[in-house]
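Lab notebook, bench 4. We co-purified these components, and the gel suggests they stay together. Before we commit to crystallization screens, I want a quick structural picture of the whole thing.
Request: model the full complex, all chains together.
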Amino acid sequence: AQTVTQSQPEMSVQEAETVTLSCTYDTSENNYYLFWYKQPPSRQMILVIRQEAYKQQNATENRFSVNFQKAAKSFSLKISDSQLGDTAMYFCAFGPPGSQGNLIFGKGTKLSVKP
Amino acid sequence: KAGVTQTPRYLIKTRGQQVTLSCSPISGHRSVSWYQQTPGQGLQFLFEYFSETQRNKGNFPGRFSGRQFSNSRSEMNVSTLELGDSALYLCASSPAGMRSNSPLHFGNGTRLTVT
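Here is the predicted assembly.
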Protein backbone atom coordinates (compact mmCIF):
# COMPACT_ATOMS: atom_id res chain seq x y z
CA ALA A 1 0.00 0.00 0.00
CA GLN A 2 1.15 3.50 -0.74
CA THR A 3 2.05 5.76 2.16
CA VAL A 4 2.96 9.42 2.46
CA THR A 5 5.13 10.73 5.29
CA GLN A 6 5.60 14.32 6.36
CA SER A 7 8.23 14.30 9.07
CA GLN A 8 7.83 17.91 10.20
CA PRO A 9 4.61 18.41 12.21
CA GLU A 10 5.31 22.12 12.65
CA MET A 11 7.61 24.70 11.15
CA SER A 12 8.02 28.43 11.35
CA VAL A 13 9.71 30.95 9.09
CA GLN A 14 10.26 34.68 9.10
CA GLU A 15 8.42 36.73 6.55
CA ALA A 16 10.37 37.08 3.28
CA GLU A 17 12.57 34.09 4.03
CA THR A 18 12.60 30.67 2.34
CA VAL A 19 11.33 27.46 3.87
CA THR A 20 11.31 23.85 2.67
CA LEU A 21 8.71 21.29 3.70
CA SER A 22 9.61 17.62 3.40
CA CYS A 23 7.57 14.74 2.04
CA THR A 24 8.48 11.16 1.28
CA TYR A 25 6.27 8.46 -0.12
CA ASP A 26 6.34 4.78 -0.75
CA THR A 27 5.03 3.13 -3.89
CA SER A 28 5.89 0.46 -6.40
CA GLU A 29 4.15 2.34 -9.19
CA ASN A 30 6.09 4.09 -11.92
CA ASN A 31 3.51 6.60 -13.08
CA TYR A 32 1.65 8.68 -10.53
CA TYR A 33 0.92 12.23 -9.46
CA LEU A 34 2.13 14.19 -6.47
CA PHE A 35 0.49 17.25 -4.98
CA TRP A 36 0.94 19.85 -2.32
CA TYR A 37 -2.25 21.26 -0.86
CA LYS A 38 -2.59 24.15 1.55
CA GLN A 39 -5.33 24.34 4.19
CA PRO A 40 -5.66 27.74 5.87
CA PRO A 41 -7.89 28.28 8.92
CA SER A 42 -10.81 28.75 6.53
CA ARG A 43 -10.59 24.93 6.09
CA GLN A 44 -10.65 24.93 2.30
CA MET A 45 -7.95 22.78 0.76
CA ILE A 46 -6.21 24.69 -2.01
CA LEU A 47 -3.93 23.14 -4.60
CA VAL A 48 -0.46 24.66 -4.39
CA ILE A 49 1.45 22.65 -6.94
CA ARG A 50 1.32 19.39 -8.86
CA GLN A 51 4.00 17.08 -10.24
CA GLU A 52 3.63 14.23 -12.68
CA ALA A 53 6.06 11.41 -11.98
CA TYR A 54 7.00 10.90 -15.63
CA LYS A 55 8.17 14.51 -15.89
CA GLN A 56 11.73 14.98 -14.70
CA GLN A 57 11.48 18.75 -14.58
CA ASN A 58 10.51 20.09 -11.18
CA ALA A 59 7.21 21.97 -11.11
CA THR A 60 7.12 25.64 -10.15
CA GLU A 61 4.23 28.01 -9.41
CA ASN A 62 5.36 31.55 -8.68
CA ARG A 63 6.98 31.45 -5.21
CA PHE A 64 6.36 27.71 -4.84
CA SER A 65 8.62 25.03 -6.29
CA VAL A 66 9.25 21.38 -5.68
CA ASN A 67 12.31 19.18 -5.52
CA PHE A 68 11.13 15.87 -6.94
CA GLN A 69 13.56 13.01 -6.45
CA LYS A 70 11.86 9.97 -7.95
CA ALA A 71 14.49 7.42 -7.04
CA ALA A 72 14.53 8.63 -3.46
CA LYS A 73 10.73 8.95 -3.42
CA SER A 74 11.03 12.45 -2.11
CA PHE A 75 8.86 15.45 -2.94
CA SER A 76 9.73 18.58 -0.99
CA LEU A 77 8.07 21.98 -1.29
CA LYS A 78 10.08 25.19 -1.25
CA ILE A 79 8.32 28.44 -0.47
CA SER A 80 10.35 31.52 -1.37
CA ASP A 81 9.75 35.03 -0.05
CA SER A 82 7.32 33.70 2.57
CA GLN A 83 4.25 35.83 3.21
CA LEU A 84 1.93 36.00 6.20
CA GLY A 85 -0.81 34.54 4.04
CA ASP A 86 1.24 31.38 3.61
CA THR A 87 0.45 30.45 7.21
CA ALA A 88 -1.51 27.19 6.92
CA MET A 89 -1.40 23.42 7.12
CA TYR A 90 0.41 21.95 4.15
CA PHE A 91 -0.42 18.46 2.97
CA CYS A 92 1.55 16.32 0.59
CA ALA A 93 -0.60 13.93 -1.42
CA PHE A 94 0.04 10.95 -3.68
CA GLY A 95 -2.25 10.06 -6.57
CA PRO A 96 -1.88 6.49 -7.78
CA PRO A 97 -2.44 5.85 -11.48
CA GLY A 98 -6.11 5.53 -12.26
CA SER A 99 -6.93 6.49 -8.67
CA GLN A 100 -9.98 8.40 -9.78
CA GLY A 101 -10.07 11.01 -7.06
CA ASN A 102 -8.50 8.86 -4.37
CA LEU A 103 -5.52 10.75 -3.03
CA ILE A 104 -3.36 9.50 -0.20
CA PHE A 105 -2.44 12.36 2.11
CA GLY A 106 0.36 12.87 4.59
CA LYS A 107 -0.46 14.03 8.11
CA GLY A 108 0.48 17.59 7.27
CA THR A 109 2.95 20.27 8.34
CA LYS A 110 1.71 23.34 10.18
CA LEU A 111 3.59 26.33 8.82
CA SER A 112 3.62 29.63 10.66
CA VAL A 113 5.01 32.70 8.94
CA LYS A 114 6.14 35.27 11.50
CA PRO A 115 6.31 39.02 10.83
CA LYS B 1 -17.40 30.22 -11.58
CA ALA B 2 -18.71 29.18 -8.19
CA GLY B 3 -16.54 26.81 -6.17
CA VAL B 4 -17.47 23.57 -4.48
CA THR B 5 -20.30 24.19 -2.04
CA GLN B 6 -20.88 22.05 0.99
CA THR B 7 -23.87 22.26 3.29
CA PRO B 8 -24.33 22.53 6.14
CA ARG B 9 -21.14 24.07 7.41
CA TYR B 10 -21.63 22.78 10.95
CA LEU B 11 -23.70 19.94 12.32
CA ILE B 12 -24.24 18.52 15.79
CA LYS B 13 -25.82 15.10 16.13
CA THR B 14 -26.35 12.53 18.86
CA ARG B 15 -24.94 9.01 18.89
CA GLY B 16 -27.18 6.61 17.03
CA GLN B 17 -28.68 9.24 14.74
CA GLN B 18 -28.04 9.50 11.04
CA VAL B 19 -26.84 12.46 9.03
CA THR B 20 -26.79 13.57 5.40
CA LEU B 21 -24.21 15.97 4.02
CA SER B 22 -24.51 17.71 0.69
CA CYS B 23 -21.97 18.77 -1.92
CA SER B 24 -22.46 20.78 -5.09
CA PRO B 25 -19.44 20.52 -7.40
CA ILE B 26 -18.04 23.17 -9.67
CA SER B 27 -20.20 23.54 -12.75
CA GLY B 28 -19.07 21.07 -15.39
CA HIS B 29 -17.27 18.80 -12.96
CA ARG B 30 -18.57 15.26 -13.08
CA SER B 31 -16.44 13.62 -10.39
CA VAL B 32 -17.09 14.11 -6.69
CA SER B 33 -14.91 12.65 -3.95
CA TRP B 34 -15.45 12.64 -0.21
CA TYR B 35 -12.79 12.71 2.51
CA GLN B 36 -12.90 12.49 6.29
CA GLN B 37 -10.41 14.64 8.18
CA THR B 38 -9.61 14.03 11.84
CA PRO B 39 -6.65 15.13 13.99
CA GLY B 40 -5.62 11.54 14.61
CA GLN B 41 -6.07 9.91 11.20
CA GLY B 42 -5.62 12.93 8.98
CA LEU B 43 -7.36 12.93 5.61
CA GLN B 44 -8.90 9.65 4.58
CA PHE B 45 -10.67 8.87 1.33
CA LEU B 46 -14.28 7.78 1.65
CA PHE B 47 -15.55 7.33 -1.90
CA GLU B 48 -15.72 8.86 -5.34
CA TYR B 49 -18.65 9.21 -7.70
CA PHE B 50 -18.68 9.84 -11.40
CA SER B 51 -21.81 10.04 -13.54
CA GLU B 52 -23.96 8.78 -10.68
CA THR B 53 -21.80 5.68 -10.18
CA GLN B 54 -19.44 4.94 -7.33
CA ARG B 55 -16.05 4.42 -8.96
CA ASN B 56 -13.86 3.96 -5.92
CA LYS B 57 -14.35 3.35 -2.23
CA GLY B 58 -12.11 3.75 0.79
CA ASN B 59 -11.84 1.53 3.82
CA PHE B 60 -14.86 2.69 5.81
CA PRO B 61 -17.73 0.67 7.28
CA GLY B 62 -21.01 0.31 5.46
CA ARG B 63 -22.56 2.97 7.70
CA PHE B 64 -20.94 5.45 5.34
CA SER B 65 -22.70 5.71 2.02
CA GLY B 66 -23.13 8.20 -0.73
CA ARG B 67 -24.84 8.94 -3.99
CA GLN B 68 -24.62 11.29 -6.90
CA PHE B 69 -27.46 12.85 -8.80
CA SER B 70 -27.79 13.53 -12.52
CA ASN B 71 -26.71 17.15 -11.97
CA SER B 72 -23.48 15.85 -10.33
CA ARG B 73 -24.50 17.02 -6.87
CA SER B 74 -23.60 14.46 -4.26
CA GLU B 75 -24.73 13.49 -0.81
CA MET B 76 -23.09 11.33 1.78
CA ASN B 77 -24.95 9.64 4.57
CA VAL B 78 -23.69 8.28 7.86
CA SER B 79 -26.07 6.05 9.79
CA THR B 80 -25.94 5.01 13.44
CA LEU B 81 -23.49 7.75 14.32
CA GLU B 82 -20.63 7.02 16.66
CA LEU B 83 -18.51 9.46 18.65
CA GLY B 84 -15.56 8.62 16.38
CA ASP B 85 -17.44 9.95 13.37
CA SER B 86 -16.84 13.48 14.63
CA ALA B 87 -14.72 15.02 11.90
CA LEU B 88 -14.45 17.52 9.11
CA TYR B 89 -15.96 16.04 5.97
CA LEU B 90 -14.51 17.44 2.78
CA CYS B 91 -15.95 17.16 -0.67
CA ALA B 92 -13.85 17.64 -3.79
CA SER B 93 -14.75 17.81 -7.44
CA SER B 94 -12.84 17.46 -10.67
CA PRO B 95 -13.78 17.33 -14.34
CA ALA B 96 -13.24 13.59 -14.59
CA GLY B 97 -11.00 12.34 -11.78
CA MET B 98 -7.33 11.38 -11.85
CA ARG B 99 -7.39 9.80 -15.29
CA SER B 100 -7.83 13.18 -16.84
CA ASN B 101 -4.85 14.52 -14.90
CA SER B 102 -7.07 17.12 -13.31
CA PRO B 103 -6.56 18.22 -9.71
CA LEU B 104 -9.22 18.12 -7.03
CA HIS B 105 -11.07 21.28 -6.02
CA PHE B 106 -12.22 21.16 -2.41
CA GLY B 107 -15.11 22.73 -0.59
CA ASN B 108 -14.96 24.31 2.88
CA GLY B 109 -16.15 21.14 4.52
CA THR B 110 -18.88 20.19 6.97
CA ARG B 111 -17.83 20.00 10.60
CA LEU B 112 -19.77 17.13 12.18
CA THR B 113 -19.81 16.78 15.95
CA VAL B 114 -21.35 13.65 17.48
CA THR B 115 -22.29 13.87 21.16
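The mean pLDDT of chain A is 93. Worth comparing against the SEC data before the next meeting. Chain A is about 0% helix and 50% strand.
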